[in-house]
What does this fold into?
Amino acid sequence: MRATVVLFTADLRLRDNPVLAAALRAAEHVVPLFVIDSGIAGAGFVTPARAAFLADCLADLDEGLRARGGRLIVRAGDVVRETCRVAAETNATEVHLASGASGYAQRREERLRSALTVDGRSLRVHDAVTTAVAPGVLVPSSGNSGKDHYAVFTPYHRRWSAERLRPVSPAPRRVELPRVRSLPLPGPGDLARGPAPAGLPKGGESEGRRRLAAWLRSGLAGYAAAHDDLAADATSRLSSYLHFGCLSPVEVISRARRWATEDEPHAGAEAFVRQLAWRDFHHQVLAAVPGAAHRDYRTRHDRWRTDPDELAAWRAGMTGYPVVDAAMRQLAHEGWMHNRARMLVASFLTKTLYHDWREGAGHFEGLLVDADVADNRLNWQWVAGTGNDTRPHRVLNPLVQARRFDPRGDYVRRWVPELAALPGAAVHTPWRLDGPARAALRYPAPVVDLTEGLARFRRARGLD
Ligand SMILES: Cc1cc2nc3c(=O)[nH]c(=O)nc-3n(C[C@H](O)[C@H](O)[C@H](O)COP(=O)(O)OP(=O)(O)OC[C@H]3O[C@@H](n4cnc5c(N)ncnc54)[C@H](O)[C@@H]3O)c2cc1C
It folds into this structure.
């Protein structure tokens, strides 16, 4: 019987997975393979939070495959060597893989293609698996964008919105496997050392689908009005499920759009789908400019400050600016942070303190479950003004942001217990308390004066 291999990467799902569907069409026997990739672990990308989430994803995928007559085959080591080995052991003629945007994913694809060709096998790469619209599909005809990608979101979004998405496909009924050796399914401790954050969500396709259904039922309607409200926690929290591919972006978008037309055109669905366009936007930028993971996309000739104490205070949520500290503590506790909070802590680090965006991106990657090279690195660059923001020098004032997006102070009180007794918006300005009340809080004084920070940034960028 003919066999083919599916190499699962950032597409850990059975439903609406074009990679798996194509492999099943191509051969009677399919080997669903996951390689615990020494290259990814070696790059420090498998943190305790992501290891715990990934272990859940693999267990759920295995369960789904077993219910269909198969199971997940697990190997460990160099991803190319192990994949070729499995293909040889099972006499597979083809390997199927989802395309990826990062430099690592692009190199993996090239290496795999050459190694398989040497063995007389072929690699089939599938697009629109990890993104809704594949990088390179939408290319600007002219203007202030790159040649092979859009550098500005608004025109990209216009084209993206008009794009017809492929139809959503169901999970396969049966997956038949040839005889093949597998390692046991890894637990979190086999993938990374150290404890995962206490507030970590469960990973996997089943959990992702439960959350998507609940979100469409009772979250989406209020999204446009409430998504920026820090205390309301009114966003989908689907990012980690999308990052690991437990959910298909095509399916999420299609269901949100269908929900909107059933319930008449809806601002909530539109605003939500727009955020998913941002995701594709960053992926197409990174696919065209993989070096933007490490280098300025648009240099501003910054000579970033280094101050280890300031950086440590920012990381620990001890800057003396309550909304910044609340967000940094939420990150440490949950492995997730609200988008508005990500923007304001990133602006605080890169503009008010004027530290290198790579410091912040690296810290986020150490803790975020949804940490994604494209979304993390390019959002950091967007906020730092070295990326695709059309207003690269804007600075978010944490006090103004706090009053606007946490007007009653509930978000801060939830995450900064030292300040829990301060009422209403007074929680945002603890430095205004008189001496003894202030000292009793055991909460640090601000690490920087906002006016001075702003002036320093403007001087550094040559704006004054
Ligand atoms: C400095 C910084 C770093 C970030 N790092 C990441 C990251 O590593 N991984 C990641 O998935 N997102 C990242 N984001 C984007 C965004 O903050 C998260 O996707 C969002 O907070 C996830 O919560 P949610 O699923 O509830 O989002 P929702 O508001 O429900 O949005 C729905 C989905 O749209 C996508 N999305 C939303 N906003 C953005 C955005 N600005 N850019 C790209 N995609 C977006 C996500 O997939 C998200 O799940 C970052 C943003 C900033 C400012």
Observations:
- The mean pLDDT is 95.
- The domain at 131-168+206-288 is CATH 1.25.40.80 (Serine Threonine Protein Phosphatase 5, Tetratricopeptide repeat).
- The chain has 21 helices and five strands.
